[in-house]
Amino acid sequence: MTPAGTIPCELCAGAGGTVLWRDGRCRVVLVDEPGYPGFCRVIWNAHVREMTDLAVADRDHVMAIVFAVERALRAELAPEKVNLASLGNMTPHVHWHVIPRHTDDPHFPSPVWAAAQRPPARPAPHDLAARLAAAIARAVGHVDGS
Questions:
Q1: Is residue 1 part of a domain?
Q2: Which residues span the domain enclosing 140?
Q3: Cβ contacts of residue 146 below 8 Å, gap of 6+?
Q4: CATH number, domain containing residue 20
Q5: Which of 65, 68, 125, 136 has the fewest CB atoms within 10 Å, i.e. is most exposed?
Q6: Percent share of the chain, pLDDT over 70
Q7: pTM for this structure?
């Protein structure tokens, strides 16, 4: 929870997207971002502002999940590149963006936060959430040794 008298944290108040996977420490959500099918976030469940506020084991865990999501996105979507970012300036809650990039996405090769170079051209497949949920579960299983 956010401290009394501050603006509520949107990642504490809601899921932050369509939940694809979760455990007791973090969750993976699919973000509805036109032109970016497969745009995911790995979100720490508790309100924590910075990665260094987490215990070392928790930092290792969240990064293992970030890398598992990257592997799943690469396997399912074959992007040109995957961008990983943890900013938190607008939402100071530990979360990582895991963004599959394609040469026809609105901003490629620039960052997704730059000026768009073209309109969104790649619609999300109808079964994307289910496919990614299964791929992430498999990838996380490899992290956990399952």
A1: no
A2: 10-144
A3: none
A4: 3.30.428.10
A5: 125
A6: 93
A7: 0.90
Strand segments (E) across 2-115: 18-22, 26-30, 40-44, 81-85, 95-101
Residue of 72, 78, 87 whose CA lies nearest to 40: 72
- pLDDT for the residue numbered 4: 53
Return the number of other C-beta atoms located less than 10 Å from residue 82's C-beta.
17
The torsion angles phi and psi of 3, rounded to 5 degrees, stand at -60, 150
Rounded Cα distance, 131 and 125, in Å? 10
pLDDT of residue 25: 97
The angle subtended at Cα 41 by Cα 46 and Cα 56, nearest 5°, is: 50
Indicate the residue type of 57: A
Q: Which two tokens stand for residue 93?
A: 């809650």
Total count of domains within the chain: 1
Give the tens place of pLDDT for each residue, 129-146.
999 999 999 999 876 654
Please give the pLDDT value at position 43: 98
What are the φ/ψ torsions at residue 95 (nearest 5 degrees)? -160, 150
**Number of residues that this document lists for the chain:** 146
